[in-house]
Amino acid sequence: MKYLGMELPVLSQKGAVHTAREISQQPALWQAIWEAVRSNRNDLNRFLGASLPNVKRIILTGAGTSAYIGLSVTGVLQRSTGIVVEPIPSTDLVSHPRDYFHADIPTLMISFARSGNSPESVAAVALAEDLCRTCFHLVLTCNPEGELAKYKTKNEKFVFSLPPEANDQSLAMTSSYTGMLLTAILIARLNDLEGQKQSVDLLAGYGRKLIDYYASDIERLADQDFKRVVFLGSGPFYGTARESYLKMLELTDGRIVGKEDSFLGFRHGPKAIINDTTLVFYIFSNHEYVSRYERDLVESMKKGPSPFLQAGVAESPINGVHLDRMFYLSENGSKLNEEYLAVCSVLPAQLLGFYKSLKLGLRPDTPSTTGAITRVVEGVQIYDLGI
Asked: Which one is predicted more confidently, 239 or 371?
């Protein structure tokens, strides 16, 4: 058995079995998630039919990687429901709950969690229960036995559990992240679920191409001696950019530092990070209007200090964009909606972080040599709000 071109004994010796398998399994997992959503469609429709007509806002929440899911699905959820959608990390909800929860604004809170055992996960739900008169809860989790999944609420709650293989065992979230992201997209498009099957199959094909065809190219990119990295993405790809940078930071134990930003936002100061040790990685949209701004930013990189390398992922070739490395997903001009592309566009960063971790002599399954970060966050004390 091989994952990412390496035999199991080699991966085991390098402390990389879980991460390699969990990256590799994603295309198959995405197709399994479509089946799981279809199996739960009636229950999901009942819950959404009871909640959505009675709420004025939707909060998308989670901690760390799980929080970035909300950044990528805000648009599709807002368009599909006609309700204001706000991505707010559970870490913010817990520290400043009165800034976000309002008693007289009926709310649907969608919580994302791999384990559901992080202290902020349950605390955010408990605070919503205390501060909102009406707050429905939709929990998307990879662990049906977690504290979040089992927490009892006075308001109605629905728990959707992803297939068991989505519950990553490695420190860095990979398939759990893309799995929960895809689940949220499919729930947003639940009224046309059968029509989404073709998109999910195409998405899986793109994922397989990145893993099977481009992994060796990405490994060679990881061989390059860059010290900083910048990931750029806009709209739903901004969440992808944030998660991409976190994967690099986690898997290299903080040895590769950098920044994530939107294409337009990067011009407003953060571009100062560029020097001759910086890898800039662009996550391109396939929307022509957005692409105009992206091409302008790439062109602007010719002014000022030059990056060490520039690379990117795009569905198809982009006129006027020529980088050191490009990873194209489509071979026939097919087009996916942006939110689906946001799912697979994180794979290059997962692979890059994985290979860079190995190059640095780290163990990708447990890259933190000091134990500063753990699979489930530890040591967070939750305090009484005093209400």
From this structure: 239
